[in-house]
Design brief:
By secondary structure, the protein is α/β, with parallel strands linked by helices. The protein is built from 13 helices and twelve strands. The N and C termini lie far apart (85 Å).
């Protein structure tokens, strides 16, 4: 009888123990988000990141939480904001564009960093040792780089506007590795007989002066190189392009969605969504050093026919045939 009582008590304790354990909430992982702009500017990519994690089974507030830090267009604040995330601490830092990645990397070598950025080359920028073996605490997906796309931008402009002889290139000289992209654009343009005008802008408040310079030099079309500053102010930039009636090509489809003429480049939404995969792998124990940096293999051509009509342009069937998407 005593043995039976002891067994019954033991089973009861085991059942209670298992019930209590089952009722214990699982670990809620904290993701820090570091961004140089405003919450509104980051809204799109953060929504895509959240959707990616939701598709992987995460529920915000139950299995994952986000802590946001925004520099509000004051990049000098990024190191301090990154340090705040480290001190909390967070389990993973999702950072983008490049200046945010750099700030996060400067303040921690242990907390994993998932970069959400369209450039520069993460190896040249010092974010990773190599794409195949990042070797540190940074990894994720990186877009195809500008100098690899330069030839296509020039070729598309030349095909769409065969009469054009002078093209302006709007660039942000503060962006890492942008000089290599500019040099490649110039090399390809020279080969097809186009004269280029370099026009620099570091902040949105320099756009008016930049377009005044384009008008003064008689540029007939425009190539806009990738820049986080430009992207955050893309509606303002596209409006100025329309005001000055300059056919323009961009590296990012979001400009075309905002009313730009055409874009050619890899889709940034792919990076935003794929970043969720890296967050998931890291939370499940993978080390960033062992997660290869991916590069999308496909670039897409997007054309806005409404903008073409407003500019009085007829886009040739050969270009429309190449388009992955036509906005009407």
């Amino acid at each position: 009888m005593k043995a039976l009582v002891l067994i019954t008590l033991a089973l009861g304790i085991l059942v209670v123990s298992l019930t209590v354990e089952a009722q214990q909430p699982g670990k809620v992982s904290r993701i820090g988000v570091l961004y140089p702009g405003s919450p509104a500017a980051a809204e799109r990519w953060q929504a895509i990141l959240l959707q990616s994690l939701h598709d992987l089974g995460y529920v915000e507030g139950q299995t994952i939480t986000f802590t946001y830090r925004y520099a509000e267009e004051k990049p000098e604040r990024l190191p301090h904001l990154a340090a705040e995330l480290v001190q909390l601490p967070v389990d993973v830092i999702v950072a983008g564009p490049p200046e945010a990645v750099q700030a996060a990397k400067q303040v921690t070598s242990t907390i994993p960093i998932v970069m959400v950025t369209g450039g520069p080359d993460p190896v040249s920028a010092g974010f990773v040792t190599s794409l195949a073996r990042p070797g540190g605490n940074v990894t994720s997906v990186s877009l195809v780089f500008g100098d690899e796309l330069a030839g296509k931008w020039v070729a598309l402009l030349k095909e769409a506007l065969p009469q054009v002889s002078r093209v302006a290139v709007l660039w942000d000289p503060t962006r890492p590795m942008i000089t290599a992209t500019m040099q490649e654009v110039e090399r390809v343009a020279q080969g097809v007989g186009l004269r280029l005008q370099r026009v620099a802008a570091r902040q949105a408040d320099e756009f008016d002066a930049a377009f005044a310079a384009m008008v003064h030099e008689g540029s007939e079309a425009l190539i806009v190189l990738r820049s986080a500053t430009f992207s955050r102010a893309r509606h303002q930039l596209v409006a100025l392009v329309a005001t000055h009636r300059l056919p323009a090509i961009y590296e990012d489809r979001r400009y075309v969605e905002a009313g730009g003429l055409m874009s050619y480049g890899s889709n940034p939404d792919v990076v935003f969504y794929r970043a969720g995969y890296y967050v998931d792998r890291i939370l499940k124990g993978a080390k960033p050093a062992d997660l290869p940096v991916e590069q999308p293999v496909k670039c897409e051509l997007v054309i806005n026919l409404t903008t073409a009509q407003a500019l009085g342009l007829t886009i040739s069937p050969s270009i429309l045939f190449q388009a992955d998407e036509v906005i009407r």
